[in-house]
Here is the input.
Amino acid sequence: MTTPRLGSLDLSQDAVSLTAALVDVFSVSGTEAALADLVEAALRQVPHLTVDRVGDAVVARTALGRSERVVLAGHIDTVPEAGNLPSRRGEGRLHGLGSCDMKGGVAVILRLAAALSAPTRDVTYVLYDGEEVDADRNGLKRVQREHPEWLAADFAVLMEPTGATVEGGCQGTLRADVTVGGRRAHSARSWLGVNAIHAAGGVLDRLRSYDARLVTIDGLEYHEGLNAVHVAGGAAGNVIPDECTVTVNYRFAPDRSLAEAGDHVRAVFDGYDVRVVDGAPGALPGLDRPAAAAFVRAIGKDPRPKFGWTDVARFTELGVPAVNYGPGDPQLAHTREEYVPEAEVYECEERMLGWLSS
Amino acid sequence: MTTPRLGSLDLSQDAVSLTAALVDVFSVSGTEAALADLVEAALRQVPHLTVDRVGDAVVARTALGRSERVVLAGHIDTVPEAGNLPSRRGEGRLHGLGSCDMKGGVAVILRLAAALSAPTRDVTYVLYDGEEVDADRNGLKRVQREHPEWLAADFAVLMEPTGATVEGGCQGTLRADVTVGGRRAHSARSWLGVNAIHAAGGVLDRLRSYDARLVTIDGLEYHEGLNAVHVAGGAAGNVIPDECTVTVNYRFAPDRSLAEAGDHVRAVFDGYDVRVVDGAPGALPGLDRPAAAAFVRAIGKDPRPKFGWTDVARFTELGVPAVNYGPGDPQLAHTREEYVPEAEVYECEERMLGWLSS
Here is the structure.
């Protein structure tokens, strides 16, 4: 994949053309520098913004002394290429790597940043790297750690793909290893051993009969899930195995804390050795807070729950109510076939403009 | 594990001390070269033997023009280390990796090779590599393929652990991969996928409820077994897996051919994708043949069936009647706690000396 030699990003072109230009700048996680350079240079041309940068995360702000400040945020990296570059338009859709997740949203943010010289609320625009990879490479986490004051706000909108509908909160995620022991023996005399893989059938039984919770919070219904995502066991081809580990992933509604989620998984696998290996808390929708409620009214559609974990949870940690709202079908994220409907890009831009102008 | 720098093997030391010296030379399958070098060098010092080698298999022979020739054979490799090195003596036992399976038997073979300058039958001593791993790495199979004339004989004794009792025949072994499919999805929306690991619970159900056959042949009762020996599945920590493979090992009585064993495994896992990956036929006890019967009389105990697959079956393929006979409890083979009773090592050496001197 060769990156077109763009001298600069033209923020005056329409939002879909700008999305196409962004898609055509290769920015798989770890290679965002070229795109971050273009974003930074373009925002520095905008007279009403002050611009900062840390790593490949760019933060631009108005400073109008408004009584409220809001954050609009989006990540500029993508998952790996899958034969879906360069971008391609047709039948009202823009196809290509990152078109849905989430360069459509990034284009809207950049258009708003250039256009809104006098928004009714002060605005902080955050374009960051490393969202599609391990949490310790996340650019928003880097800003949070090194310059938390840049993220201070009354409300935040993450422009992840939501089908142009407000999605509140996000589910938490926890991974745990459930390990089953046994006793080794030569497989020719298997009755002298205890087969740990056979015993792991008991773990799979609990997963197969598990009844996932449906939880309603602030009128939004979350759908949990508990699944094996990995299994490994076996010592040698002629040995009754004495250990088998099933790695499970629990996706939990935001009424449960990370600690409660761990307790739940331990309870489900009571009697087995359970070790939590990884986790991130969810975020409550917070739609009862005034800033969020005002935004939902401005968008004018019924909000929905967010199942996947998103950086909304980071804002929640900072005490900033946050929602997801952006163009594109979230079920197309990370697929070869991803695209963004052109109409949703324009709609999101228009609703956001309306909200920040009224 | 560091291997003691043995300059040479002393075949004049008593058989248990020699067993300890052999245990202390690390020779997990694939790393037998150092031990093969020592064995070859020691046998080349013995004037009444001619010595050949192919790979890490060493073959030494007398050429006295006797009317009968017998093979004494043993493998020099071991299963992986399990915190059971170096060797340790106590309470009449020698503990350590390979002490039971089968460096005690190898020590007896090496002692006989050095001591018997004029046995009553010509003897071929075979010490070989790669018995504990896939059949295509088996050193005896390599000799059989490249120099079958080296194995020509009227009778063969494999000195695998049998508790110093003659064991007739051996069970066959077959490995198969049972693969279960599914459909990938993001684990945050797990209900859109089909979890292959959960579905593999059905394979484990059949294994858990499997009823193994007991089969009587030539008065010996064989005990079959069907076990999972490996399981693997999973795509990523946030993906519902679309494939899981359970590797099963079927140990079958010698009244079934390898093809019949494959049919049986396919029938057990009817409805699943079954692929046979490896197998070796069993060997009928053959105790009604004259050479085997004469040996059994010399040892002077009732013979028993052999559950584990051994290279007895290879000799059967060459038309050479063969039995297992060696020191050590076969139930301790491949366990961390394996040991060989010192008295059995001495007993086997004495009975074999008697047989080959009378």
In short: The two ends of chain B are 43 Å apart (CA to CA). Chain B touches chain A through 57 residues (CB under 8 Å). Confidence is low (pLDDT under 50) at residues 1-5 of chain B. The longest helix of chain B spans residues 99-115.
